Amino acid sequence: MASTGILAAIGNTPLVELTRLPPAGSARIVVKLESANPTGSMKDRVARAMIERAAADGRLRPRDTVVEYTAGTTGISLALVCAALGFKAHFVFSNAFSPDKRNTMRAYGAEITDVEAPGGQITEQLIRGLIARADEISRRPGHWYCDQLNNRDGEAGYHSLGEELWQQSGGRVDAFVQAVGTAHSIHGSAHTLRLHNPRLRVFAVEPAESAVLSGRAPGAHNIDGIGIGFVPPLWRRAEVDEILTVPTAEAKAMARRLAREEGLFAGTSTGANLVAALAVAQRLGPKATVATIAVDSGLRYLSTDVFRS
User: Fold this and answer.
1) Among 28, 164, 238, 291, which residue is least crowded by beta carbons within 10 Å?
2) Which residues form the catalytic set?
3) Cβ neighbours around 116 below 10 Å, total
4) Contact yes or no for 295/42 (Cβ under 8 A)
5) Are residues 200 and 296 in the same domain?
6) Predicted confidence band at 147 (pLDDT cuts at 50, 70, 90)?
7) 107 in helix, strand or coil?
8) Which pTM value belongs to this model?
9) Is there a single domain that holds both residue 178 and residue 219?
10) Which range of residues forms the domain containing residue 51?
């Protein structure tokens, strides 16, 4: 039976078990294929939650313009939701991120303002510059600032992801591994998983070059969507068992391996997730199940260097 409207197609994405990458004696690794969402990423979930809740309580009014700073993935998802619900969209973006994302946001009708990143690197200064520009634009009449880093509605968008992970894995998730940008996805998914398994172990992933969650200094990296250079406002360290760091080069190499050895076509943050998940799986052993997320599709990175090696 057909769904009513595109937003009904968000969620209930496939879960697959890796068959070739995990070495003998390691835990089972299951991966949620969020590329099966309408825009090809998990951010469809959070975008829908933030927009629908703001519209329901009157913060976002008919024909308003939604404003956000974005590395592209959240912007694409917000653009989809705005198109589906009749809102306008204006996003602040940068040359540090994949140009495929800029083109996709525009395809959904979004207006883009660019902030230049020297050397095309993701840094704390860049992210703060994006935020400042979005805040400025949001002060115009008829504009609503989504402000994903401080938007507490976002986390609820991932409660369903945690429930799907549990049900599709057959009720077997011992560890959950997820890269951190806003922290919505790691906290929201883990919240539901812990309702089923209070002994769940949660592993956060961040770029080794900018390991601020681990207490190190911020730096430049090229893993889109994570590692913002400062601790996210809604980050709750007490709910995470361990923080793992992954260098950009290893994340990119793993994205290539996933495509070539597992047929799983995903981006750099997914590569980082799998580098960490494989390490956790070897640590926990064959009786455990490690769950992680394929955040988005590799189609968004074809114009970058990720798949050129």
Assistant:
1) 238
2) 43, 269
3) 10
4) yes
5) yes
6) very high
7) helix
8) 0.94
9) yes
10) 43-150
